[in-house]
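Work Package 3 (structural annotation) set out to generate three-dimensional models for the target panel prioritized at the project kickoff. During this period the team completed the workflow that converts sequence records into discrete structure tokens, so that structures can be stored uniformly alongside our sequence database. As a representative example, we reproduce one entry of 82 residues exactly as it appears in the project archive.
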Amino acid sequence: MVESLVNNGMIQATVWINPVSMFQNQFISIARTHYDDYQNFRDEIQALIDKRTALLVKELWNDTKVDKEQYLQYNKILSKAD
């Protein structure tokens, strides 16, 4: 990961030399497919996984029975990565 951050920094520092790279980087930025956007997406997914796992362990430990109301509450809780 550190290596890719160093490479990204070097590319950003020399992008003005190559107009093709500059166009590509601007396009990537607009399309939100940049490395940082991808990493943020992965972090959000990981936060949701961690939240779901913590909730699952807690509910298993408490031997909670799931009914419709409880299921809807789970959907509400797990719909956002806080």
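The mean pLDDT is 80.
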